[in-house]
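Forum: Protein Structure Q&A
Topic: Joint prediction for protein chains with partners

I've read a bunch of threads here and the consensus seems to be that you should model interacting components together rather than docking separate models afterwards. I'd like to see that in practice. Below is the full input, 578 residues plus whatever partners are listed. Could one of the regulars post the assembled result?
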Amino acid sequence: MRKVALFSAVLVGAAIMLFPFLWTVITSITPEGSLAGGPTLFVEDPTLDAYRTLLDTVPMWRIMLNSFGIAVAATVLQLVTGAMAGYGFARLSFPGKNIVFAGYLATLMIPLQVLVVPLFIEMRTFQLNDTYFALLAPGIASAFGVFLLRQAVAAVPSELDEAATIDGASHLRIFTTIVLPLVRPTLATVAVFAFMSSWNGFLWPLVVIRSPEFMTLPLGLSTLQGQFTTEWDVVMAGSVLSIIPIAVVYLLAQRHIIAGIAHTGIK
Amino acid sequence: MTLVATKSPVTSPPPIRRAKPRRSWKHYGWVLFFLLPSAVPLVLFTIVPMISSIWVSLHEWNLISPMRWVGFDNYVSLLTDPQTGKVFLHTLLYVAGYLPLVYAGGLGLALALNRKLPARAFLRATYFLPVVTSWVVVALVWKWLLNPAGGLVNQILGFFGLGQPGWWTDPDWALVSVILASAWKDLGFVMVILLAGLQAIPRDLHEAAIVDGASGWQRFWRVTLPLLTPSTFFVVVISLINGFQVFDQVYVMTGGGPGGASQVVVGQIYDLTFRYGRAGEASALSWLLFVVILAVTVIQIRGQRRWVHYA
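Posted by a regular:
Agreed with the consensus. Here's the joint model:
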C-alpha cells in the first residue's frame, strides 16, 4: 500500500517534470489568436504558423548548425588536447612537471565571469569578435578534461607501454594504440561534458557574437524574446526546435551522461 | 688500468638496476608535442585574460577611450556603493531559496528511486531531462508558464480560487520565479548525486539496524542521513559555487528587473561592462565575486569535519 502511494507520488513528480516540455509543444502549435487566455491542453485547430514565422525571420537552421558544429568541434578538440596532455603528465617526466600541472589546475578555479571582459577585449584586439573562432576559443582545451584523463592514463599499467617501448614503439604509437583504447570510458565522460557545456553555453556567445549568422541556439533563442515579446507561440517553437537535438543526444548517451555526472559531480 | 677506472661509471653501469633514461632533446620534443596543444590555448584564453583582468580592474575604462590608472579606486567605490550590497543580497537570497528546495526534492526523489519501483530507469531519465536542457530554454519555458496573463501556473491557481502573483513582472516575486525554474532544472542533478551516495551505503549496516529493531525513521536518521553526508557536502559545495554565479536564467526571465529587483552579481558585471561602459569596475566586481566564492568554499571544506561522516 505504501509502495503504491510512493509510486504514485513519484509518477506525479515525473509528470511535473515532463509537463513543461509538453506545454512548450502545445503552445507552439496553438494559433496566435487563441493564446491570450492561455492555450488549452487539446489544441482545437493546431497550426505550424509559429514555425513558419520563426524560420522566415530568424536563420534558425543556420543557428542550429552553428550550435552543433561548435559543440562537436569543442568536443573533438578537448578530447585530443586533453588525452595528449593526460599522457604527457602521466607518462613523461620533465623538470617542473608538478608546477605546470598545478598551473593547469589553477585555471579551473577562475570562473568564466572573471575572464569574459578581458577575453572579449583580447578577441577585439585581434578582430576576432563575431567569428566562429571566438565562439570556440575558450573550448579548445579544458583543464578539467586534462585532469580526468591524466588520472585515467595513470591508472593504465605502465608494464604495457614498457613492453611496447622495448619493441621499439614511439610515444605516439603507445599513446594511440595502447593508452587511448584503455581510457575510453573517461574519454566518453569528457566528451559528454565538453558537448553539453558548449551546447548550453550562453554568457560567452552573448558577449562575443552580434550577427545572427554566428549565433548559437541559446543566444538565438534569447534574442527571439526581444523580437517576439508577446508572441509566445514563436518563442516556444524556437524552444522546441532547440530541445529536440539535445534530447536525441541524451536518449542515445543517457547512461554515459548520468554515470559521468554521478562519478565526477559536474554538469 | 687507471684510464679504464675513470671511465667506469659510463662504460659499466650496475647490471641489474635499470639505467635512468637519458633526457635527450628528442624526449623534450615529445613533452612539447603532448603538452603544447592544451598549454597554448589555456595560456591564451585563460591565463592571459586572467592577468589582464587584474590590470583592467585597476583602471577606469569604457572599452573605447584610453585606460586611466586609478589604483584600487574601483574596489573602494564598489565596496561603498549600495548597489554592490544589493546584488550580493539578491544572489544570496537566490541561493538561500534554491538550495533547500533542490536538496529536499532531490533527496526525496533519490530515496524513492533507490527502491525497487516499476519503470525506475524511465523515471530517473525523466527527472534528469531538464538537466541536459539549456538554461535559456528552461528560463523561456518557465517565463511562459509563470506568465501573469495566460500562463499555466496562474490558470491553475485561478482554477482553485487562489491568488495569482505577477511572478517575474512583480519585484517581490521576480527572484521567486527564477528560484522555481532553477530548482526544477537541477532537481535531477541532485537526485543523481544522492542516488550514487545512497548506493554506496553498505547493505549490512541497514540489516544490522533492522536486527537491532530500528524503525524505518530511526534507520533514516541514524544510518542513511549520516552516511549520505559526503554526497550532501558535495551537493552543497557545488550548488553554492554555481549559485553565486547565477546569470543565464536571470538574464532571460527578468533581465535583473523589474527595477533591479532581481539583479545578481554576474548580471551586474555584464551591465557594468556592456551597458554602462565601466569595464574597470566590472573586472573588480568579478574578482570580488571570486574571493567570496573562494571564501565560502574554503569555509565549507574547513567546516566539513563537524558534520560530514566518511564511512
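Residues 232-264 of chain A form the longest helix (33 residues).
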